[in-house]
Amino acid sequence: MSTPHFPLHRNRTHRTGHRHRGRVVTAALLTAGLLAGATACADDQNGGTDGHTVRVAASPGPYTELFRDGVAPILEDEGYTVEFQDFSELQQADIALQEGSADLNVDQHTAYMEAFNSDSGADLAALTKIPTVPAGLFSSRHTSVDQVADGQTVSIPDDTSNTSRAYRILVQAGWLTLKPGTDDTKITASDIAENPHNLKISTVDSSIIPRSLDDVDWAVIPGARSYAAGTDPKLQVLQEQLLPALILVAVTTSDKVDSDWAKAVVAAYNSDRFAEYMAGHNADNYWFVPEREGAAAGQSGQAGETTSTVASGDAA
To answer: Which residues does UniProt assign to the signal peptide (predicted)?
Structure first.
């Protein structure tokens, strides 16, 4: 991931909320100099301009949809207004978080967040683990990893993080072995020690893979891509064993972690109500649902009040 050098491109802003109908705030783009002063502002720390508005930087994928349908209603019932700002790319959403024009994103895993922080000097922080759609090995020609044969074709994503995940899935399938000392989160083609079936592995734009599934023997598809493309879950022959760093997290900036609204988001994701929602929307076990965190598996706090119980966990 390279340090971003492009301006924000916000497609649209819309909001929900039943109890607090404050005015819509159009956030100004902040320069790096202004950011240093803005992070000390109590209004930004509290979320929105009144502490009752949660501004979600939404990027493409199933996770914002899950938040809209399963989490936002819980927050609204607690007195919060949820405002969505749609971005075409996750990197743009993270820039909005860092600049202070948005409060929350739910579309990235810890590894992505930490890479963004490292590359751009940002201070994004994880609030809690959230349900995640794992990557998987799919095939329209075969029904079991045991049907692998010499010279078969395999498509895997071409972006660095998902390429590494794809190689790890092929190792999980028993088709490849890696050189000793290989970092499981940074696997490349040069790390492959053995490919006994001489599989023809090609890297492809991940958005194309679901559409070209019939053209290859096997394909590794990232979870968000398979979900968005409506790929038949019955075609999945193997689901990845998620590394902790690849579990999705709710993300804000470090100065907002202890705000009331952030505590309410954590409590909502870990509440009985959200657990019931997930139970009714995971019939195909498409989602990996992390263990609920501590005593926060209860109710979120009212807007403007301090939540008495905050989740403790290892989401970071």
So the answer is: 1-42
Give the N- to C-terminal CA distance of the chain in Å, as an integer.
Answer: 19
**Closest to 48 (Cα-Cα) out of 13, 12, 83:** 83
Q: What is the DSSP-derived secondary structure letter of residue 195?
A: -
Q: What angle do CA 56, 61, 62 make, to 5 degrees?
A: 90
Q: For 188-222, what is each residue's pLDDT tens digit?
A: 999 999 999 999 999 999 999 999 999 999 999 99
Phi/psi of residue 162, nearest 5 degrees = -75, -25
Q: At 266, phi and psi to the nearest 5?
A: -60, -45
Residue 54 belongs to a domain:
yes
Number of Cβ atoms within 10 Å of the Cβ of 43:
13
The CATH number of the domain holding residue 47 is 3.40.190.10
Its domain, for residue 114, covers: 10-132+246-296
- On whether both 25 and 125 belong to a single domain, the answer is yes
Residues 66 and 115 in one domain: yes
Domains in the chain, number = 2
DSSP string across 101-161 = S--BEEEEEHHHHHHHHHHHT--EEEEEE--B---EEE-SS-SSGGG--TT-EEEEE-SHH
292: nearest Cα among 261, 313, 263: 313
Residue pair 203/243 in contact by the 8 Å Cβ criterion? no
Ramachandran category for residue 254: left, alpha or beta (phi over 0 → left; psi -120 to 50 → alpha): alpha
> Who contacts 55 (Cβ-Cβ below 8 Å, separation ≥6)?
27, 47, 48, 83, 85, 101, 102, 103, 104
Task: Quick: pLDDT tens for 59-111.
Answer: 888 999 999 999 999 999 999 999 999 999 999 999 999 999 999 999 999 98
pTM for the model:
0.73
DSSP letter assigned to residue 71: I
Say if residue 45's pLDDT is above 60: no
